[in-house]
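tool=predict chain=A
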Amino acid sequence: MRGQLLRVVEVRKRSVAPSLECGADQVVGFPPPIAELKARVRAAMRTRLATERLEDTSQVIFALANAVEAKDAYTEGHTERVGALADEVGRLAGLDDETREALRQGGVLHDIGKIGIPNEIINKAGRLTDKERIVMNKHPIIGERICEPLKSLRHLLPIIRWHHERLDGTGYPDGLKGSQFPLPPQILQLSDIFDAITTDRPYHRARTRAGAVEFLYNEAKKGWRDAQLVGLVARAAESLGLGRTRDEDIPPPPAPIGQWRTE
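tool=predict ok
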C-alpha cells in the first residue's frame, strides 16, 4: 500500500511540469485545499498586477522615444524604419525571433538618450565643434540609463549603448574592438546609418540607396564596419523599398559636403 501511494504521488508531481509548460500560472491538486487555493490566487493576482505595472512603465518609455523623434520633423519615421530594416537584416543573417524582436524594439529606443541633448546640437547644419561632439556622444549612455531600471528592457541595453561603436575600436562610448562588438548592435548601427544618410537632414543631403550602400562599404574598408553585414543591409533595404533610387529626386544639400555627418 505504501509503495502504491508513493507511485501516485510521483505521478502527480510529474504531471505538474506539462501543465506549467502549457501556460498554467499555478498548479494545485484536486480537490484543492481551500487555504492553499486562496493563497495561490492572491499570488497570481500580485504577479499580474506587477506585470501590468511593468507593461505600463515600458509603454511610457516607448512613448518617450516617440516624443523624442516627434521633436524633429527631419527624423519622422526614422525609428520605425531602422527597426524594420534591422529586423530584416537579422532575418537574412539567420538570427532567432527573440533577437530580431530586440532589434525592432532597439530601433525605437536606440536614440532615446537624445532627449538629454540640446536641439541646437542635434539639428545643427554642419559639423559639430569638439565641445558639441562631447555632448552629442553622451546620448547612448543617457539612453541606457533611462531604460536600465526596467528588467523588460535590459536585453536592449547593449543595442542602445553600443550603436555608435566601430570594429576598429574608434567608436564610442566604450571603444569596443573586433569580437567585443556584438552582432545585434552592429546590425542596428548599420540600419541606423543607412536610414540617416538616405533621408533629408539639416546637416547633409540625402543619398540614394546605392549611394548609401557605397558609403557603408567605404566605411567597411576603413575597418569600421563588417562588409558582409553591409551586403545584407543592401539586400534588406532593396526588399523593403527603403531609400530613393534616383539622384534627381533628392533636394539640394543644406550644408557644404565637407560638413556632412551621419547621426
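The first helix runs from residue 2 to 21. The chain has a mean pLDDT of 81.
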